Amino acid sequence: MLYGLYQFLGWLTLIAGLPFFLLYILFSGRYREGLGQRFGFLGTLEQKPGHTMTIWLHGASVGEVLLAGILMKELAVILPEADFVLSTMTEQGMEVARKQAGEKVRCIYAPLDLVGIVGRAIRKIKPSLYVCLETELWPAFLLEAKRSGLRLVLLNGRLSEISFQRYRLVKGFMKKILSGFSMISVIQPIDAKRYKSLGAEPEKVRVLGNAKYDQDMEGLASESEEQYRSWLNLRQGQPLFVAGSTHTGEEEMLLGVFLNLKKTSGLQDLIWVIAPRHLQRLTEVEGMLKQKQVPYERLSEVKGSERRTDIILVDSIGDLAGLYSVASYVFCGGSLVERGGHNIMEAAIFGKPVFYGPSMKDFSDAAELLESVGGGFPVSGPEALTESILYYADHPEEYDEASRRALEIAATQQGAARKQALLVKEVLNH
Fold it and tell me: DSSP state, 76?
């Protein structure tokens, strides 16, 4: 009954809202690309010559798409006969998917989670196995896949306390959905406990770590450290403060941090690079900087000419890791506001200790790991962030030790992607 209500409300919303949605597309231009794919019309998706199976991976947005890229590299090694389809829900996710996959992977927009639409997509792709990344539990798709005999695997599963309590309200329904998975790989023991409490069969749940921390160092940064130093015109020893994956409200707080740091002896030539999590917010961030009457440039501008200001706004995808590699101080966004944080191991793998705010529930495992060795610095707010950076600027020996420990603990997290890929092979062989 609950599933029937979900489908009824879904179709009702679609039918009632479709005219307004089409008008929005017409005038804004957004969501026009891939509209047919969202309704299950996928065009030509022929399996590549020499491949005997298709693995479909779904990553909701940028973070999950990057994770899919890590996993596909491992899967291609142990399953050379496999062809891949990667679906995502956002335009930014699609941009990253195409950039990292090239011609090797067929990238599509995920179909709407409605009966008929998902069935059409499954019949078109004809996958041997569907890989659900993290917690993308779409009922219609998963139940239709189960009915069609498609094998399902959940990889890199995480379940926050808030999501767990919400799912507990429909525990019987969740048990039915989770029963369709052949195997479930989770990040931490607490995730395993929560999935089992919702009805997942204990023998199907394994704790294999977080594949997001499995970084390919050679392919992580799109350019060399020397190239980023050149673009930013960094002098030897000039400090660089990089704030990555920021959200609404954080840029203004971090601007105050930057301006206060520049008042300090030794940091007067500090450069600040700010990288919003979502590029559609660039106009919003620029508006704030203009209102504060502080000069800035976009990264795309300084790539083509010499840097003229001390504030650089990142307006491209794929450059954040390279900027982390040359940073003196790194702050990870989504943590001074209630967004759950982002992947702090992306900076730690370059030997950079990471500063972050109190909202880190989505990456609590990474925060605990870094803090346990002194390579992660939680702060309560912008004032505390300023004080913490100033402390380490005055104690370079301690900061160098924190850098070493951050790199060491990040290196220990390598290998989860390989374990998860082997789990996929195990499922396909049974």
Answer: H
Give yes or no: 64 in active site. yes
Q: Is 67 exposed, middle or buried (0-12, 13-18, 19+ CB in 10 A)?
A: buried
**pLDDT average per 10 residues of sequence, the chain (430 residues):** 82 88 81 88 76 92 89 94 94 88 86 93 95 91 93 94 92 94 94 96 95 71 85 95 98 98 94 96 97 97 93 94 96 96 94 97 90 97 98 97 96 92 95
How many CB atoms lie under 10 A from the CB of residue 175? 13
Say what the pTM is.
0.78
The answer to whether domain 27-214+415-428 has CATH 3.10.450.540 is no
- Nearest CA among 200, 79, 78 for reference residue 135: 200
CATH code assigned to 218-412: 3.40.50.2000
As a whole number of angstroms, the distance between CA 190 and CA 180 comes to 21
Residues 394-421 pLDDT 10s:
999 999 999 999 999 998 888 999 999 9
The residue annotated as part of the active site, out of 33, 46, 64, 301, is: 64
R_g over Cα of the chain: 23
What's the distance, Cα to Cα, between the start and end of the chain in Å? Answer: 33
Please report which residue ranges of 241-316 form alpha helices under DSSP H: 250-262, 282-291, 299-304
Domain chopping of the chain, boundaries: 27-214+415-428, 218-412
